[in-house]
């Protein structure tokens, strides 16, 4: 096994009791309970290299958060194996905690009634960070996240964006090599989101941290991740770079051309169909076969026809991932 995060055949099954309606049903459930197994994660395998930001994507209930909870040591897998920075997280939780940082968008690791600065001091003592290193990291995080204007404010009085920025700083105060982010920017405004993205880019590119990110924000994925792992119904259904995923699912492009001569006969090209035509204006799209990329299609149209104007519409990442989700549902 190689990489900062190594996952092999990881599975997690939860068992719940079926609750029947009515008094008789409740009594029967008490005397002879019916147990049902729910496979939250099933046989997932992937690696994340040092200094890589991987986006772990999938619909709600796909198993993303359960996977992260196993990698952070919160849950023990039913089967399979995982290592984070060389440590089995659910067997050595204390050592694993020193190697990782974690931010969950809906929860905070800060003390609700204390000023942010005091929470940072408590975390410094918990992780036994030398005071000089602690001060240097706080200064660095302040430059990147603009914390000092509110770090004497009680956590309960912070806005969502301020709190998440503080949580990011708190997660990295002990300088962990691996960081888990479970929808960290949910509910943020666009300005704070971009500030957080810049911070994450800096941590990966300049500090060499390994980041595993879950999010439903495709803009975030496009700007931060080079590689995506897609899970659905607890199973891994796709693992590849954004370019590979675009080539596989991003065929919903169109090339719009205005012909020099409106009477030119227009015919389909290899892999390219005529979607519609209005006089000199023609719209081309993929014909459903092994369609070329949008840039190959653009080149083919220019080489075949004389045009006065040409434009292209390429599917954005949200469209591409929607197509990937739909195919995953069909599997």
UniProtKB/TrEMBL annotation:
InterPro entries per the UniProt record, alphabetical: AAA+_ATPase, ABC_transporter-like_ATP-bd, ABC_transporter_ATP-binding, P-loop_NTPase
- Does the record's keyword annotation contain Transcription? no
A GO term from the CC aspect: plasma membrane
Q: Where is the protein situated, by its record's location annotation?
A: Cell membrane
Gene3D superfamilies found in the cross-reference section = P-loop containing nucleotide triphosphate hydrolases
Membrane disposition = Peripheral membrane protein
The molecular function terms of the Gene Ontology recorded here are: ATP binding; ATP hydrolysis activity
Q: Which GO terms describe its biological process?
A: response to antibiotic
This protein is called ABC transporter ATP-binding protein
């Amino acid at each position: 096994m190689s990489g900062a995060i190594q996952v092999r055949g990881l599975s997690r099954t939860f068992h719940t009791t079926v609750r029947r309606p009515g008094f008789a049903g409740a009594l029967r459930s008490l005397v002879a309970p019916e147990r049902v197994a729910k496979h939250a994660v099933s046989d997932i395998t992937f690696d994340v290299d040092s200094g890589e930001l991987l986006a772990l994507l999938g619909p709600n209930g796909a198993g993303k958060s359960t996977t992260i909870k196993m990698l952070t040591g919160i849950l023990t897998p039913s089967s399979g194996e995982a290592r984070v920075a060389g440590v089995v997280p659910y067997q050595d939780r204390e050592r694993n905690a020193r190697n990782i940082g974690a931010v969950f968008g809906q929860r905070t690791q800060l003390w609700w009634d204390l000023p942010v600065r005091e929470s940072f001091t408590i975390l410094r003592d918990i992780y036994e960070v030398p005071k000089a290193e602690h001060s240097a990291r706080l200064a660095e995080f302040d430059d990147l996240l603009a914390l000092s204007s509110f770090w004497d404010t009680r956590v309960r009085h912070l806005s969502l964006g301020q709190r998440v920025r503080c949580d990011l700083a708190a997660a990295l105060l002990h300088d962990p090599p691996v960081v888990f982010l479970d929808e960290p920017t949910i509910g943020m405004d666009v300005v704070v989101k971009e500030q957080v993205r810049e911070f994450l880019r800096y941590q990966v590119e300049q500090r060499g941290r390994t980041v595993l990110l879950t999010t439903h924000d495709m803009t975030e994925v496009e700007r931060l991740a080079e590689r995506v792992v897609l899970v659905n119904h607890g199973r891994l259904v796709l693992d590849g770079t954004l370019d590979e995923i675009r080539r596989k699912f991003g065929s919903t492009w169109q090339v719009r051309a205005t012909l020099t001569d409106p009477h030119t006969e227009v015919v389909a090209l290899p892999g390219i169909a005529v979607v519609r035509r209005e006089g000199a204006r023609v719209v081309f799209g993929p014909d459903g076969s092994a369609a070329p990329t949008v840039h190959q299609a653009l080149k083919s149209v220019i080489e075949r026809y004389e045009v006065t104007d040409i434009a292209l519409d390429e599917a954005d990442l949200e469209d591409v991932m929607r197509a990937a989700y739909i195919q995953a549902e069909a599997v």
